[in-house]
Amino acid sequence: WGILFSHPRDFTPVCTTELGRAAKLASEFSKRNVKMIALSIDSVQDHMSWSKVWELHISNPKACRIGVAKIEGRNRKVCSIFLEHSSKSRALKVFVFGPDKKLKLSILYPATTGRNFDEILRVVDSLQLTAYKKVATPVDWKPGDSVMVVPTLPDEEAKKLFPKGVFTKDLPSGKKYLRYTPQP
């Protein structure tokens, strides 16, 4: 699993706070086997200077490291899809990739709104759970909450697959498509 997030430039105020938060949560992402990298068009020297600033936002900077890549020359072509319009519109992008190297999530934030790395962590939990189990996560789901049984799974198979039980929400229509089970 990998997370790539772009920054229009180094030494931007919102991104400084984001990198500090991402670094603080690095161990949580690592527990989930997720590698993070931040992309900016600035030099490695600028990245190193900037890292000293955003590390002020965390209590133990040596324990919290994230990668910061430099884009230049031939690499700029490869990564331009990730940074496209970032430096012009100052957009903040997030991409989550699965182990199959396919894009699982992309989010675009305006430069005036900091990314929510707690939410990104929650989404990673959902993506990983739903990738390996026949479940979906409902609105506002958090790890440990009940999950939904995917609609393509027949009731009999769901009962076998989820020994803790499958519970259907009663709906005015009488349809039984909202099926829940404790998180496997």
Automatic annotation (TrEMBL):
GO terms for molecular function: peroxiredoxin activity. Gene3D superfamilies: Antioxidant, Horf6, Chain A, domain2 (3.30.1020.10), Glutaredoxin (3.40.30.10). InterPro entries: AhpC/TSA, Peroxiredoxin_AhpC-typ, Peroxiredoxin_C, Thioredoxin-like_sf, Thioredoxin_domain. The keyword Oxidoreductase applies. The active site is at C15. It comes from Nestor notabilis. Keywords: Antioxidant, Oxidoreductase, Peroxidase. SUPFAM superfamilies: Thioredoxin-like. The keyword Coiled coil does not apply. It holds the Pfam family 1-cysPrx_C. This is Peroxiredoxin-6. The lineage of its organism: Eukaryota, Metazoa, Chordata, Craniata, Vertebrata. Residues 1-129 form the Thioredoxin domain. GO terms for cellular component: cytosol; mitochondrion. One of its GO terms (biological process) is cell redox homeostasis.
